[in-house]
Design brief:
heterodimer; A: 191 residues; alpha/beta; B: 517 residues; Rossmann fold; 18 strands; binds iron/sulfur cluster
Chain lengths: 191, 517
């Protein structure tokens, strides 16, 4: 069983990232389940998707302390999901910071010790800078696929399998851009 | 062929495969994608957004009685709006299968309450079945049409947010060719005057006995024997959490939650050492089991509030210890509540209402977020359309002066849904209040669906565009002003003027939602 959480902010495209992952897993013959957030919660709030695949999957939700990977498309959001990580799990964090409302209004400040703290608590922590990759891919919208590309390094699926899944889920005119984004993510450095 | 589908997409697919002819709905999280998927992908079903859930159910009931297979889908609070037709179409029964898809929202992710609509099945005497996965969402939708026709009852399929909005693998099938039946006039069945209603009530009770037999014998309520030391009765998505966290135990999976399978429950209870009931929200199954005289543990250890999760079940049943890493993080973590989009037309409106320090009776939509900072400019909000009636109530409580410092704020889609009758009331009962219709040309919060005042149908066809200004005038409102809220000075002037006027007024605050195409 593999458990993956994608966390982010409404509009960052966590649902597409999890769809692609589910598609590859399904094509490899795994059972898959996923849970996502719609509606009011999406309006600029914190969002997440849970993806699980394996021989047989019951719950669409991942139990706390059992996620193999927590992928956060925004730096702060990793803190909200870190309790889901299993003791041997890995976190992958995009270092982009999007100020939540209380930070915008000055009522609170954006924590500046996240990377340091996570690294002191989590054995496998990858912080990535996606700015360059997104520039090269030609669209900020590709962030979800760049992050999925980075995650793909740890998963068992081949380049061809990923490519097939992306092609089946992305609108034709965006396929090339997303394939490029995926490759850039797969080769991205982390700190 | 197998596909990964969202629970709601699986329901749409199930309706299509079952040969459903007509589908109706009003958008509401977590049910919206059902009708959206039908309108987009299964165009051989005639689908429509109705102005509200009551109308949606009536159109579906009409289609059913005329001979078609029909589906009405809605969120839990939508079924409150449709409760009037629900209770009486329970009496008439059906001709073509009639399925009501009800989506509850434990955790109130996108709702004003966490009501448990299993109670409505019992109260309306309508059978209810509950899928626990996307595959079952499809299968149970198909089954619901069969049961409806077999037992001459509408059938409710109840899902929850975690069924609606979770994806899984679904085996796809072909569409069944079901001809539309003939409409046979039968006033004893279809006209519910008291003389007809009484015998129909008897009919329902007779069908109830047959349905209970189905509930007991059909296998829809399924025992999965494991270790008999502990047995767990569960339903809906809670079943998945139980299977995940208690793989050794015996499980009774409730697929038909009304009528309940007394014999199966007794058989199960007699065979296991300790009996537990794991269900979200109210102790619906638990109370039933206890009323059968069976001892069980339920809400003593399973929370009644909020949705369940695997760790809640694991803690309650297995005493699992969950450690929290983040509790050790000492820097305050800023919350990220949902908020109006940057540049949202509603923002301009609430800036002005805040500045003028008016009492704001709000309604259901994106704009409800104006209750939160930075606006903090909403003071009441209850249900679809309530803003207008409540504004009249404010005036009735304190007299006319109250109407000078109070406004109702309601979206265009919500106004069409439930705002027209209270506007009539405001005029009829000599109120002098001000209603602001936030006309952003869409049902924005649920994903920008069209509605009668946008001039487009669910299928994107052009249709008559309801004229809100004319409508307000027809209700008897003489002061109707259209204004762009982005023109802040003008907007403020209009609000000052209209609230000061000692007669009813409607301000149509017209600016398209920035996300609406
Ligand atoms: S979706 Fe439209 S109406 Fe809703 S908050 Fe965004 S801009 Fe405003």
């Amino acid at each position: 069983m593999v458990n993956v959480i994608f966390a982010g902010v409404g509009g960052q495209g966590v649902i597409l990232a999890s769809k692609v992952l589910m598609e590859v897993a399904k094509d490899r013959g795994y059972d898959v389940k996923e849970s996502e957030v719609h509606g009011m919660a999406q309006r600029g709030g914190s969002v997440e998707c849970n993806v699980r695949y394996g021989e047989k999957v019951y719950s669409p939700l991942i139990e706390k302390g059992t996620a193999d990977y927590v992928v956060s498309l925004e730096e702060l959001e990793i803190l909200r999901k870190i309790d889901y990580l299993s003791p041997d799990g890995a976190v992958i964090v995009n270092r982009e910071k999007i100020d939540p409302a209380p930070v915008q209004t000055g009522a609170m400040s954006y924590p500046n010790d996240i990377q340091e703290w996570i690294k002191s608590r989590v054995k496998q922590a990858h912080f990535v800078d996606t700015v360059g990759a997104l520039k090269e891919a030609g669209s900020k919208k590709a962030l979800n696929i760049v992050m999925l590309g980075f995650l793909s390094r740890f998963l068992e699926f081949t380049d061809e399998q990923w490519e097939k899944a992306i092609k089946s889920l992305v609108k034709e005119k965006f396929v090339e851009m997303n394939l490029k984004a995926f490759k850039l993510g797969r080769e991205m450095k982390s700190s | 062929m197998k596909k990964v589908l969202l629970g709601n997409e699986a329901i749409a697919r199930g309706a299509w495969e079952a040969g459903c002819h007509v589908a109706t709905s009003y958008p509401g999280t977590p049910s919206t994608e059902i009708l959206e998927t039908i309108a987009r992908e299964y165009t051989d079903i005639r689908s429509q957004w109705s102005p509200n859930e009551k109308v949606a159910l009536e159109v579906a009931a009409g289609a059913s009685i005329a001979g078609a297979r029909a589906l009405a889908s809605m969120k839990h609070v939508g079924l409150n709006v449709a409760a009037d037709p629900l209770f009486t179409f329970s009496y008439t029964g059906v001709n073509g299968g009639l399925v009501i898809l009800n989506a509850d929202d434990p955790g109130a992710w996108s709702s004003q309450n966490e009501q448990d609509n299993r109670h409505l099945a019992r109260a309306s005497k309508i059978p209810m079945i509950e899928p626990s996965s996307p595959q079952e969402a499809k299968d149970f939708t198909m089954l619901a049409f069969e049961l409806s026709e077999q037992f001459d009852r509408p059938v409710i399929v109840r899902i929850t947010t975690r069924i609606a909005h979770s994806q899984g693998i679904v085996e796809m099938g072909e569409r069944k060719n079901v001809p539309v039946r003939e409409f046979v006039r039968n006033p004893q069945k279809y006209v519910m005057i008291p003389a007809h209603a009484r015998p129909r009530h008897k009919f329902i009770e007779e069908q109830f006995i047959k349905l209970k037999e189905y509930s007991n014998k059909s296998g829809i309520n399924r025992i999965e024997w494991g270790n008999k030391k502990r047995g767990i009765i569960t339903d809906s998505v809670a079943y998945q959490y139980v299977k995940e966290t208690c793989p050794e135990d015996s499980v009774l999976k409730i697929g038909m939650v009304w009528p309940m399978p007394d014999d199966v429950i007794r058989e199960f209870a007699a065979a296991v050492g300790e009996l537990y009931v794991v269900e979200e929200l109210d102790p619906f199954i638990e109370d039933y089991v206890k009323a059968l005289g069976i001892k069980a543990v339920g809400k003593e250890i399973i929370p009644l509030l909020n949705e369940l999760t695997p760790e809640i079940v694991d803690q309650a049943l297995n005493g699992k210890k969950i450690t929290s890493l983040v509790s050790d993080y000492k820097t305050p973590i800023p919350p990220r509540p949902p908020a109006l989009c940057q540049g949202c037309p509603h923002g301009f409106v609430f800036n002005v209402l805040k500045k003028l320090d008016l009492n704001v009776n709000g309604d259901i939509g994106c704009y409800t977020l104006a209750v939160l900072p930075p606006y903090s400019a909403m003071h009441t909000q209850g249900c679809m359309g309530a803003s207008i009636g409540m504004t009249l109530g404010f005036e009735k409580a304190h007299g006319e002066e109250m109407a000078r410092k109070t406004v109702a704020v309601i979206g265009d889609s919500t106004f069409v849904h439930s705002g027209i009758t209270p506007l009539i009331d405001l005029v009829y009962n000599r109120g002098t209040g001000t209603v602001i219709i936030l006309d952003n040309r869409s049902t924005a919060m649920t994903g920008h669906q069209d509605h009668p005042a946008t001039g487009k149908t669910a299928n994107g066809e052009e249709t008559h565009e309801l004229d809100l200004e004319l409508l307000a005038r027809a209700c008897g409102v003489k002061r109707v002003v259209k204004v762009d809220p982005k023109n802040t000075e003008e907007f403020e002037r209009v609000v000052r003027e209209e609230t000061a006027a000692r007669e009813p007024s409607v301000i149509i605050s017209l600016r398209k939602c920035i996300l609406k195409k």
